[in-house]
Amino acid sequence: MCSNASMTAALKTSFVTVFVLSWLYAAPAMADAFGYADESGAIYLTDTPTDSQYALLEAAPPEPVLPIVSSLPSTTPNALRIIQANAPFHDVIKSAAEASGVEDKLLHAVITAESNYNPRAVSPKGAKGLMQLMPATARQYGVSNVFDPAQNIQGGARYLAYLKTLFNGDLALTVAAYNAGENAVIGHGRKVPPFRETTAYVSKVLALYKRYD
Questions:
Q1: Catalytic residue among 98, 103, 114, 197, which?
Q2: Which of 56, 72, 101, 192 could be bridged to 176 by S-S, CB 3.0 to 4.6 A?
Q3: Would you call 114 a catalytic residue per the annotation?
Q4: In 3-state terms, what secondary structure has residue 147?
Q5: Residue 19 in contact with residue 36, Cβ under 8 Å?
Q6: Are residues 46 and 86 in the same domain?
């Protein structure tokens, strides 16, 4: 049978261990813990022992190794201009912009929203290519191969130029008409049609357009 002194010592050891583990995990940045219990049961803890009475009680849990996260790309106008300049089909977009009079940043915004620069994109409604031209629109603007990036962008740019003139340069109406058709915009009193898809599309394209300022 254990003596009272042995039992007391064992209880003290168990208590100290539980106490120290709780202390360590409550402060994971702490170093290793040292401590001792005196005859009255008082517990003394430290991470920098200065007395031989202190003994290592429990090693502190290792600090987690956090992954290195690269900094987010800058969103300054200059940085966005660099992004634009390095976007796919930049030269073709610039050429189509100059020929049509439509800003290249508007073409970038529409292409991003329509196909995210995928020249083989096809929508459930039958719109195709980078600027998601419908068959009738493609024919109207001389696009014989909608999957040819140059033809598709040039046709889309000419269509945007037409819409921009039709709506007196109003960018929101131009973009709304590109999505829903000019008749839908005219039929709603020359306002953005209250279609969920169209209002979301206009917001997205205009936000992209402003980022390229």
A1: 114
A2: 192
A3: yes
A4: coil
A5: no
A6: no
Q: Which residues on adjacent β-strands are paired with residue 55?
A: 35
CA angle (155 as vertex; 152, 115 as ends), nearest 5? 40
Residues 6+ apart with CB under 8 A from 58: 17, 20, 21, 24, 32, 33
**Nearest residue to 155 (alpha-carbon basis) of 130, 185, 124:** 130
Mean pLDDT of 47-67: 54
Same domain, 88 and 25: no
**Polymer length of the chain:** 213
**Residues in contact with 126: Cβ distance below 8 Å, sequence separation at least 6, in sequence order:** 134, 135
- Dihedral of alpha carbons 90, 170, 213, 109, sign: negative
Amino acid at site 114: E
- Angstrom distance (rounded) from CA 126 to CA 129: 10
C-alpha torsion 10→11→12→18, nearest 10: 110
Residue 141 falls within a domain, yes or no? yes
Residue 147 and residue 120 in contact, taking contact as beta carbons nearer than 8 Å: yes
In this structure, which amino acid lies at residue 100? S
Question: Where in the sequence is the domain holding 162, given as residue range(s)?
Answer: 77-211
Same domain? For 125 and 49 the reply is no
- For residue 34, the cross-strand partners are 46, 56
- The bridge status of strand 55-58 relative to strand 33-37 is antiparallel
* Residue 61 pLDDT exceeds 70: no
Band (pLDDT 50/70/90 cuts) for residue 25 is very low
Write out pLDDT tens, residues 34-47: 666 666 556 656 66
